[in-house]
Amino acid sequence: MAKAQVRAAPRRLIARDSLLVASFLALLIFCSLLLAWLLRFDFSLPYLPRLLAAAPILILIRLAAIGQFRLFHGWWRYTDLKDVVELLKAILLGSAAFLVVMRFVLGAPAFPRSIYLLESLVSTALLVGARTFTRVLAELVRRDRGAAKNVMLIGAGFAAQMVIREIEQPGSGYRAVGCVDDDPSKVGIRIHGVPVMGTVEQLPRLVSTRAVDEILIAVPSATGTQMQRFVGLCEQAAVRFKTVPTLQDVITGRVSISQFRDVRPEDLLGRVPIEIDLESVRKQIEGRVVLVTGAAGTIGSELCRQILEYNPKRMLCVDQSETGVFYLQLELSEHSNKGTRLVFHVSDVGDCKRMQSLVAEHGPEVVFHAAAYKHVPVMEGNAHEAVKNNIFALLTLLEVVEEGGCQSFVLISSDKAVNPTSVMGATKRIGELIVGARPTSSMRCVSVRFGNVLGSNGSVVPILQKQLRNNQQLTVTHPEIRRFFMTTREAVSLVLQAFTIGNRGDTLVLDMGRSVRILDLARTLIRLSGKSENEVSIKFTGLREGEKLFEELFYASEVVQPTSFQKIKRIRSAPHRWFELQRHLEELRASTCINGAAPIRAKMKEIVPEYVYQLDHQREKNAAQVAPVTSKALGQAASAD
What is the reported pTM? Predict the structure, then answer.
């Protein structure tokens, strides 16, 4: 009973509001008839009984016409041209109906004919005027509130129109003072009353002449290069800024275009985020059993989210982290579909018996292997565990799932596997060699190689953001260190696309554009935090063990070939003989029983000749260590260069 009362409450409120609006409109209609009568008879009231008899009829007809055009709800909030047109239609319809009823239905030819015209004109003036007055009054009240922020919009297109309409609503907390746009022909026009004051390049000057509290970037289709330009101009204006969601987010319905957010690092990659057509994935996932290892990690969890969209019969989510599995289960269970059974296990993929039990129970047909140790400096001090987890757990998993009838296996690799200088990178390269050389009966194995994932756990962006929040120095290892960056969505899209187009033993690589200098990324984050580069110092700590200045995507000996997808490349290299690689792997396993990491490193160098110990570059690391400097000093130094 209580729930029914709660559900009925909004309906009662709507009915009450509609009744109030109808009563007010009835009063206006009566006043219009009265005024028309006074105008017709020189402000006297002859034939008063006729007037009083016609009033209820007119009121009912007009209210019925207004209701027909759905003008009872929300009339007090705002009035635009569409509202006025609809109201004129309702008045015209009501006047015609009133004439027909009075003259032909009721037979009242003595009713003054001029009243029909006068009353319709007065009704138009009163009804339109009442709406306009309430809109103006609401605007004045809203603009008088001191809490509202003055905002300038970048963009004067469709997105800006929608944003301004939302801003104009009471309670938005914003007041639009003007727009700028790259199209000079738009300068001088008004968008819902907000003027386009100039071009985007004039933004700093325009902001300096007005009390602008914030800038809203209303260009959802902006590329990375355009966003960099907008951010630079906002920085010159020394005003905080936000942006509307990306066009992709709006199209897919994930967010509304009026939901402002801070500019994210991925907006500034300098390239358009790659969107991949993944409909082909559905054919190979729908109705099948899928296993994701490392499911609680950044890549693994995004894999689970996207795979779930393609309706697998069952999805096994395996990870060593109990806490990670708990939160993943909490999230996925809320968005799961009825056709997919979700199974969560806290397990070590290197535990042969445990994995045999899981595979025997669930029979995975597709495996995405994202479980690996990835932190370069940590693995330099834990070489035994890196080899155990990244190499031998992979071998165990391959053997177990193939015996269980798996049809496709996808390994997540890294650009650190190319000319590695770290234990982690060397283990990833050996993983690629295993997938490429290991003979299989029917299981198709593919490796996917890509760069850093923006915002992943323990990556550079979250660390820098935390330092900014805590008002600490930003730590960057070297002023020239560069990395390839991808969004998590791009990385997972690549993995899924590789699953569909990769042939047995392939290593596929995404064309990620140009690498990004970490120092530039740090400066961008400073600007996005609303701080000046003069306020935040950047400390160069020197290259860490296993780290190198530049990552690479290909070996010099690899032949890069196109695939059916433009942004994914297939690489070919001299094939490795499995029996030789197997012998090396057994010797590597034996080296893990010896104290110290030196034997492990030496053996990995035999397997991957390109692997270079970071110890050989200790001088470079020491030379990279410099004293803390401010961003302003860095900018001056860059200019001097």
Answer: 0.64
> Is residue 629 helix, strand or coil?
strand
Q: What is the DSSP string of 397-461?
A: HHHHHHHTT--EEEEE--GGGSS--SHHHHHHHHHHHHHHH---SS-EEEEEE--EETT-TTSHH
Q: For residue 180, name the pLDDT band (cuts at 50, 70, 90).
A: very high
**Measuring CA to CA, how many Å separate 177 from each of 167, 172, 193, 274?**
11, 14, 10, 35
Picking from 420, 417, 445, the residue whose alpha carbon sits closest to that of residue 429 is 417
Spell out the domain ranges in the chain.
17-142, 149-263, 287-451+486-509+552-615
Question: Stretch 470-494: mean pLDDT, rounded?
Answer: 85
Residue from 200, 275, 269, 273 nearest 228 by CA = 269
Domain 149-263, CATH among 3.10.129.10, 3.30.70.1730, 3.40.50.2000, 3.40.50.720: 3.40.50.720
pLDDT category at 171 given cuts 50, 70, 90 is low
CA 443/CA 401 separation, integer angstroms: 9
Closest-CA residue to 270 (of 225, 337, 219, 324) = 225
Cβ–Cβ < 8 Å for 424, 374: yes
Per-residue model confidence as pLDDT tens digits over 126-149: 888 877 777 666 555 555 444 578
Which CATH superfamily hosts domain 287-451+486-509+552-615? NAD(P)-binding Rossmann-like Domain (3.40.50.720)
Q: Which two tokens stand for residue 306?
A: 């996207």
Does residue 614 have a pLDDT over 60?
A: no
Whole-angstrom distance, CA of residue 487 vs CA of residue 274: 9
Tokens of 197: 């004051």
Range among 39-48, 184-193, 416-425 rated most confident: 416-425
DSSP letter (8 states) at residue 272: P
pLDDT tier, 574 (very low <50, low <70, confident <90, very high otherwise): confident
Nearest to 350 by CA among 325, 321, 320, 384: 320
